[in-house]
Amino acid sequence: MDIEKKDEQPLRSPVPTSAPSDPTRKLKRRRCIIICSSITAVILTIALVLLILGLTVFKAKKPVITVNSVALEDFDVSVNPIPIRVSLNLSLALGIAIKNPNKVSIKYRSSSATLRYRNKDVGDVPIPAGRLGSDDTENLNLTLTVFADRLVSDSEIYRDVLRGSLPFSTYTRIKAKVRVLFVHIRVTSTSTCDFDIDTQNRSVGNQTCHYKNKF
Questions:
Q1: In Å, how far are 63, 167, 169, 213 from 175, measured between CA atoms?
Q2: What pTM was estimated for this model as a whole?
C-alpha cells in the first residue's frame, strides 16, 4: 500500500502591515498648528506695539511747575530802636502753573507752597489735590503770609531791614501719579524761586527760579 507523503511547511507569522494614514486627522492637526501660530503671532504683535507706545508716545513725563509771578500784596516794616525790635507785615501774591506733558491724565496729591527767609520756613499756603488731563495746564493764584513771630528772634532781620533788602524764597513741591498702560508711576516736581524785597521801593527784584523733577 502506497502512502502519500505531504511536505509539511512551518507556519509563518503574518507580516504586520502599516495602517493607512488618516488624511482627515492630518488636516485637523495642521489647522490646529496654524491657528495656534496665528494667535501667538497676534499676541506678540500686540505686546510689541504696547511696548513701543509705552516707551514713546505714552512714556511717563514729569509735571512741570512754573512760577509765573511773585508780587507784594501787603508790606509794612518798622524798626524800634529801644528795645531793638523789627515789626514786619508781609503778604505775597504767588502765581504758579502746573503743566501735565503726558498723553494721559495725572493725579497730584495735596501739598503746599512755602515762604522762606534765609532757609527758614516763615509762611506757607496749602495747595489742594487735583487732576490734570493730557497736555493740560492749571494756573493757581496763591497768597503767602509771613508768620511774624518766626522772624522776631532772627538777628539777621534787623540788619537786612537797615540794609534795605530782605532775601526771601518760595518752595513748591508737587507729587503726582501717572498711569502708563497698566503701570502706575509716581513723579515729583519742585520749584524754588529766590528774590529780594526792596524795603524802600516796596518791590520784588532779583528773582531767580530753579526747577527739578524726579521719578
A1: 9, 27, 20, 10
A2: 0.68
